[in-house]
């Protein structure tokens, strides 16, 4: 995990848990991990996100062309050792290069208990998320 240059990583002493210590255990897979656009018609694809980490993660989904994509869930969390699915709909139009960015942050109850209730506030924090591209 990389921290913003202006901010030093916080030191947490609650049960000796820190976000920095949690990151090596962050294991998330996305299936399928490629978004293949075929033709100019509308398309729908479901991506399954598996969280194999022992803790929950908060997820934010962004599209490079938000007017063209409809995303079923933009901000959500996934419990540890579980999965969730998101549905992506691509509207009709010319084929162009598009990308979906999925941002992940570990969600540890003792450090940030309010992230599960409101996942979008996690990405307003000083923590830099891990990003996966589709």
UniProtKB/TrEMBL annotation:
Organism superkingdom: Eukaryota
Spans traversing the lipid bilayer: none
UniProt domain MSP: residue ranges: 28-94
Pfam families: Motile_Sperm
Name of the protein this chain belongs to: MSP domain-containing protein
């Amino acid at each position: 995990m990389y921290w913003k240059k202006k901010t030093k990583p916080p030191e947490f002493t609650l049960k000796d848990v820190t976000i920095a210590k949690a990151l090596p255990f962050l294991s998330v897979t996305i299936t399928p991990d490629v978004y293949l656009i075929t033709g100019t018609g509308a398309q729908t694809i479901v991506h399954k996100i598996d969280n194999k980490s022992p803790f929950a993660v908060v997820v934010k989904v962004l599209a490079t062309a938000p007017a063209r994509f409809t995303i079923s869930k933009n901000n959500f969390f996934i419990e540890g050792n579980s999965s969730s699915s998101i549905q992506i709909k691509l509207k009709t139009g010319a084929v162009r290069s598009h990308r979906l960015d999925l941002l992940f942050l570990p969600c540890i109850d003792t450090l940030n208990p309010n992230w599960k209730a409101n996942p979008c506030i996690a990405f307003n924090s000083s923590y830099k998320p891990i990003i996966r591209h589709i």
